[in-house]
Specification:
- The protein is built from 12 helices and 8 strands.
- By secondary structure, the chain is an alpha+beta fold.
- The chain folds into 2 domains: 83 residues, lambda repressor-like DNA-binding domains (434 Repressor (Amino-terminal Domain), Orthogonal Bundle), CATH 1.10.260; 185 residues, Endonuclease, Chain A (2-Layer Sandwich).
- It has an 8-stranded mixed β-sheet with strand order 1-2-8-7-6-3-4-5.
Length: 289
């Protein structure tokens, strides 16, 4: 990953030029974990079918884990370690395997999500990943060019769904979402997928730690014209600004830039509909489908 050093700044930029190498490294971790799990299973004298039954998966899924074609969840790794009486030889891999499931350009942000006390997000292209239904995720990933393999799509869906545990975390972080009306009108995957997505937004919007706002198309002022971004506040009070454009991401910790981004987000929030008005707006869009 390329580090761009500036006076008073801490900026990390990830792009396609180095992503291939990092992704290869991530795949190596997944393969090594799979080989370790297979070795422990064979040592325990368990066939794939019996082992799979004990951890709640089919023999074919176990084979996918062992061959590095699928990434197990942290809970699956814990259960496998228990069933194989591995004494922590598998659970020690949890953090590395979890990190490997994300595209390299998102790994820093994924770590910050787990440590945050506040996330403020502005989206103008697609529904934020934390708010996406599985059907919406698959529709988006299926449209990528060059095409992603089915296994890659499955891995990224699993990783994205796992991130949504943030809604049930205790203590609950404060989550703010502002998105443009255009995001909610784009029928990625078809009318049925969009309907399910809008219904899910209404459900999540009811959570007490979530504020969801819509920026209508007829709004004449929008301070978010520079594009989508996310502001992360960590438990220690440090703030970061994350943004993506095409295949390039940026994670900035420069205090001046984070303060400006927070101010910009405040203006965007004031220009958008209120959370109550936004819920009514989403209900209206549902009625039009």
């Amino acid at each position: 990953m390329t580090e761009v050093a500036r006076e008073g700044a801490d900026t990390v930029v990830a792009d396609d030029a180095n992503q291939a190498t990092a992704d290869t490294s991530g795949q190596a971790v997944i393969v090594a974990f799979g080989q370790t799990m297979k070795t422990l299973r064979v040592r325990a004298g368990l066939e794939r079918e019996e082992f799979g039954r004990r951890i709640g998966y089919s023999a074919s899924t176990v084979a996918s884990y062992e061959q590095g074609r699928r990434i197990p969840s942290p809970r699956t790794i814990e259960r496998a370690d228990e069933v194989l009486d591995a004494g922590g030889l598998l659970t020690v891999w949890k953090e590395q395997v979890e990190r490997a499931q994300y595209p390299v350009r998102f790994r820093g942000m994924a770590k910050l999500e787990k440590e945050c006390v506040e996330l403020l997000m502005y989206d103008a292209l697609i529904v934020n990943g934390l708010l996406q239904t599985e059907e919406y995720m698959r529709a988006l990933l299926g449209m990528r060019r060059p095409p992603l393999t089915q296994e890659t799509i499955d891995q990224r869906v699993t990783a994205r769904l796992a991130r949504q545990d943030i809604f049930d975390r205790q203590p609950a972080p404060l989550l703010g979402f502002v998105m443009t009306e255009a995001v909610l009108r784009q029928r990625y995957g078809g009318k049925g997928v969009l309907r399910g997505q809008l219904e899910y937004l209404l459900l999540i919007g009811q959570k007490r730690n979530v504020e969801m706002q819509i920026m209508p198309l007829d709004c004449e002022d929008n301070a978010g014209v520079n594009g989508p971004f996310t502001i992360v506040t960590r438990k220690d009070g440090n703030k970061f600004v994350y943004s993506e454009a095409h295949a390039i991401s940026s994670l900035v910790a420069d205090p001046e830039q984070t303060v400006l981004a927070a101010a910009r987000y405040g203006i965007i929030r004031s220009q958008a509909l209120s959370p109550r008005e936004s819920s009514q707006f989403v209900e209206k869009l549902l009625g039009e489908l």
